[in-house]
Hints:
Helices cover 10% and strands 21% of the residues. The protein is built from 1 helix and 5 strands.
Amino acid sequence: MYKLLWITCALPDKNGKTSGRPKLKGKHYYNSFCHPQLSNTIPVKNANSRFCINLPKIGLVPFVDNRPIPVGFKVKTGTVIYEIVLDYQKN
Length: 91
């Protein structure tokens, strides 16, 4: 795949200009992504009594319920954010 990518950026276009080298991102570059298929998911409580949503191909993901969802409304999209939470006890 990368070989094809380098070949396509090295070949000139119809005006004779070549595009620059692509900037490839690492796997830890993105901390969040949007999940657009939440219209038919139902919040459930897991064993730790936290609210979770069952996302396709990911599984149960805990979410922060800042305010209740009004009756008759649906959640359409959601953003999954990777955060590191450090908890420590003060001696």
